[in-house]
UniProtKB/TrEMBL annotation:
It is a multi-pass membrane protein. The gene is cls. Its EC number is 2.7.8.-. It holds the Pfam family PLDc_2. It comes from Bombella pollinis. This is Cardiolipin synthase.
Length: 473
């Protein structure tokens, strides 16, 4: 009996010690009070399992320099800034421009051309053509890179480019492109193409990294032509192909030319250096830029290695500055309190807020969590539209038909706070008009308050429970 009490005493003492240590860590590191309170409760009321969950999912172990890889300190780089930095005229977006000047350290660059490409049917031929025309370098990053019919076309094109002397680097996410087994990495290595898996490890002490994902989709060719947006690489993104087995996925990608492509290169090179310790630089990756159009643009990134959520801050500031109309299209929509409040206040002051989400996405639990957030927004006057199939994976935002914000980030806590994402601001009326028209063309089935009120109690309870676990789905 004495031995039994002795064992119980030590188990209890260890539980208290672990919980006190984790409570101190949470109080010193967590900015979100709701998350802090939740983790403290889990650790105290779930002996041993709570601390294990926190060690696996609650600690940000990623530490990288928050500043740019290149500091623009040489005479050549200073001349680059003087020549290509956009001189903002009087505009209602000037406060946003100034905010991003300070937070990103990246200038708003003029002289760019942007082409919007819908679905893999439009985007993949452009991307493959650019790879076939490459002369010096190819940088490719994708969250999902399948080795299917489309994937094989990309692997063949990359291998051919490398054979003619082009420097090729491919980075895929350690989860999105296969965790235990990655067919695309196997094929790339067999073709002797330099490739890596971001944040991937099978060692138990590194497995907590699986909660942090590189969600970026970037292709840069010769430092002059860039592609970015929401499009992964896989057969399901080609809607004209009726034979694929997966759910067909509509998406939107963007082809860029001009000085802003250098910023896109920096994003990839920073991730590559973090993953492989190889730093890429020089004329091969950063050639002297050439004006390709007249669109001012700037890349905005976010990730758990940053002190602030830059993409979320950009969206919030744009909502605050909006005067007439804000349009969103997103596959996953779970706004936190400050995001939802910004939308509600804008709607209450007379700004038309249109939010297009899929009627059903490829992640049902995410849909349930989303539905738990919609009542308050609809009550405030936001117009929520349920898009018809095929599932649309585009991530688009426009403000007053003058400004656009597009890229890889979804409107949920995972994208805005846990994933590594890349978006781009586009100060161009023609692009905004095209994207706004595209979004509004999907506004056919509006969700009303009366629709929400007839949801059964069991449905609303299910939705509320799913919302609690969203950051880690």
């Amino acid at each position: 009996m004495a031995s039994f009490f002795s064992v119980s005493f030590w188990f209890g003492a260890l539980h208290i010690a672990f919980s006190l240590g984790i409570t101190a860590h949470v109080l010193l590191t967590k900015r979100d009070t709701a998350a802090a309170t939740g983790w403290i409760g889990i650790c105290w009321f779930m002996p041993y399992m709570g601390p294990i969950l926190y060690l696996c999912l609650g600690i940000n172990r990623v530490r990288r320099r928050a500043q740019k890889l290149r500091e623009y300190t040489t005479p050549e780089e200073t001349a680059f800034l003087a020549k290509w930095t956009h001189d903002a005229q009087d505009s209602f977006m000037n406060p946003l421009i100034k905010m991003l000047d300070g937070l990103t350290g990246l200038p708003l660059l003029k002289g760019n051309q942007v082409e919007c490409l819908h679905n893999g049917d439009q985007a993949y031929p452009h991307m493959l053509e650019s790879i076939h025309q490459a002369e010096r370098s190819i940088l490719l990053c994708s969250y999902i890179f399948r080795y299917d019919k489309i994937g094989r076309q990309f692997v063949d094109a990359l291998a051919t480019a490398q054979q003619r002397g082009v420097e090729v680097r491919v980075l895929v996410d350690g989860i999105g492109s296969g965790y235990l087994y990655s067919p695309i990495i196997k094929q790339l290595r067999q073709r002797h193409i330099r490739c890596a898996r971001f944040m991937h490890s099978l060692w138990p002490w590194r497995m907590p990294f699986v909660n942090l994902r590189d969600h970026r989709k970037i292709l840069v060719v010769d430092g002059r032509v860039g592609y970015m947006g929401g499009l992964n690489i896989g057969d399901e993104n080609c809607l004209n192909n009726a034979t694929h087995r997966r759910m067909p996925v509509a998406d939107t990608h963007f082809r860029l030319e001009g000085p802003v492509v250098q910023q896109l290169s920096e994003v990839f090179i920073k991730d590559w250096a973090f993953t492989t310790r190889e730093e890429l630089d020089g004329e091969r990756y950063f050639p002297d830029p050439v004006a390709a159009g007249d669109i001012p643009a700037r890349v905005v990134t976010s990730g758990p290695d940053m002190e602030v959520e830059l993409i979320e801050y950009t969206i919030l500031q744009a909502i605050i500055l909006a005067r007439h109309h804000v349009c969103f299209m997103t596959p996953y929509f779970i706004p936190d309190d400050r995001f939802a409040t910004a939308l509600e206040l804008a709607a209450l002051r007379g700004v038309v807020i249109d939010i297009v989400v899929p009627h059903r996405s490829n992640h049902p639990i995410t849909d349930y969590a989303r539905d738990a957030c919609l009542r308050q927004l609809v009550q405030a006057g936001c117009r929520v539209w349920l898009g018809a199939p095929p599932f649309n994976h585009s991530k688009l935002m426009t403000v007053d038909t003058m400004w656009s914000f597009v890229g890889s980030a979804n409107l949920d806590r995972r994208s805005l706070r846990l994933n590594f994402e890349s978006n781009i601001t586009l100060h161009d009326e023609a692009t905004a008009a095209h994207l706004e028209g595209f979004i509004l063309a999907h506004c056919n089935d509006r969700l009303t308050l009366s629709d929400i009120e007839v949801w059964p109690l069991v449905t609303r309870l299910r939705n509320g429970v799913c919302r609690l676990f969203l950051p880690y789905l």
